[in-house]
Amino acid sequence: MTKVTTAEQAVAGIDSNMTVASAGVIGWVTPDAVLKALGERFSKTHEPRDLTFYFPCGTGDAMGIKGMDHVAREGLMKRIVSGSYINPVDPETGERPKLMQLIHANKIEAYSWPIGATMHWLREVARNSPGYMTRVGLGTYADPRHGGGKFTERAVDDLIRLIELDGEELLFYPSWPVDVAILRAATADEHGNLSWEDEPLTTANVALALAAKASGGKVIAQVRRIVEVGSRPANQNRLPGIYVDSVVVDPDMMMTTDVAYDPAYFGGTQKELSTLAAPPFSVDRIIANRIAPEVRKHELAIFGFGAATDVPLVMNENGAFENGGIYDYPGTTEHGAYGGIVMPGWQFSANINPDALLDGVTQFDAIDGGLCKFTALSFAEYDAQGTVNVSKFGRANPGAGGFIDIAQNAERLIFAGTFTTGGLKADVANGRLVIEREGKVKKFVSTATSITYRVQEGVAKRNQEALIVTERAVFRCMEDGLELIEIAPGIDLQTQVLDLMDFAPVRIAQPLPLMDAAHFNKTAQAKRHENA
């Protein structure tokens, strides 16, 4: 009996008060057609109601691939637990995502967990354990003493607990059943055996399916194609059909926004690195220029979203990857792509020309085990107590993503971002940085809005090394505070650095070195960008 059905038929069995889980990474591997069908069913029938949604990572981009925004409807969504949230302004409507509107209006119970916890929790549900225990996130916004991951006032239940085991404090995430899992794969046969041979990520899809089946729930899979039973080698099928209840075929599904289909993202073809466009000159490019020399050979590096994403592209432009040099600089992302080059924008998380792919749950085993020695991550705020914040600031509630797991377990850390934000405009003239319009919002603040990671504590207790790299200044994070170690040419120390900080560095290098002039060579970089 075939398991192939329509998206509308597949979601018809979802009842009120269920927990529905789905996985995607921005637009990658997002089962958009099925999520859309569920949202449309509610619009037509006002059923089902009061669902709990569980997304290990921000699923969909709320732009070309709506993902979780399809089900962001008051009445349909009662509660959401997610490892990250997406909050872009739609250029056509000028609106924030529907989900973020519900969060800001306190219309739903919203929780944010570190992605490592969202991935590993599924494994505990799948094996019917009481829950997930971890050291990761102690002292952060996930810690019940600092909010317990609650993102709205309606979120009153304690989904994360502080426990003690053999005298050690740990965070505990109790298990609860997953009633429906909505997956995306590349291919299925009529028995429901699933493979991901032309997807660049598998994320938590297999773990989602096992968690749902262990809970007595159902699994819906969206795929690009159906093939004959037995037409693929068994080792290509990552999820046996016995764990799949319904298969929805969408032959036209996008790989991600702006990418209909490109086999270079999963190793089906190799793209010439010389054809990759170098980042255009900007303040982010200056930051990436400064970070690139910090990347060491033969040290596994993991790059986060934002200015740090441009670092491998800068290294590629500078020739570091020529003649096989790319294999001297192993790199990955939090979602399991190894090798190649991570891409910016909506293509972030997948790599061009990857060598290998791990699923999301296994990747966070590697991250939490400290195997990613170096990381470059973005920052939104840094405060006088040595705390970095990326999880909640201004009108943005993105959550931590993989930030906490990565930062807590790496040995060398760089936090990348502009010195101020909110309208900052800068340029370079004669090799000197010119601030044409200062940002309205300070990023070096007395107290961070949210505690994403305690950098100063990591330096003191775990012997971590950490830098903060901005377009105009570089700081070293020390046990007793920030040490200013470099300044951009053209920048006035007092008025354009110190006066824009709510706290003072504990030390300023004397004499204070200038950042390398090559980072500000706009003409040379512009020519290389045009040639690329």
What key phrases describe this protein's structure?
single chain, 8-stranded parallel beta sheet, 532 residues, Glutaconate Coenzyme A-transferase, alpha/beta, 12 helices
Entry summary:
This protein has 532 residues and is of the alpha/beta class.
Q: How many structural domains can be distinguished in the coordinates?
A: 2
Estimate the global geometry from the Cα principal axes.
Answer: globular
The CATH architecture name of the largest domain reads 3-Layer(aba) Sandwich
The profile of the biggest β sheet is: 8 strands, parallel
CATH topology label of the largest domain: Glutaconate Coenzyme A-transferase
Structure report:
The protein is 19% helix and 24% strand. By secondary structure, it is α/β, with parallel strands linked by helices. It folds into two domains: 4-249, Glutaconate Coenzyme A-transferase; 264-531, Glutaconate Coenzyme A-transferase, CATH 3.40.1080. An eight-stranded parallel β-sheet has the order 1-14-12-9-2-3-4-5, sandwiched between helices. An eight-stranded mixed β-sheet has the order 16-15-21-24-31-32-33-34. The protein has a four-stranded mixed β-sheet with strand order 29-22-23-30. The model has no long low-confidence stretch (mean pLDDT 95).
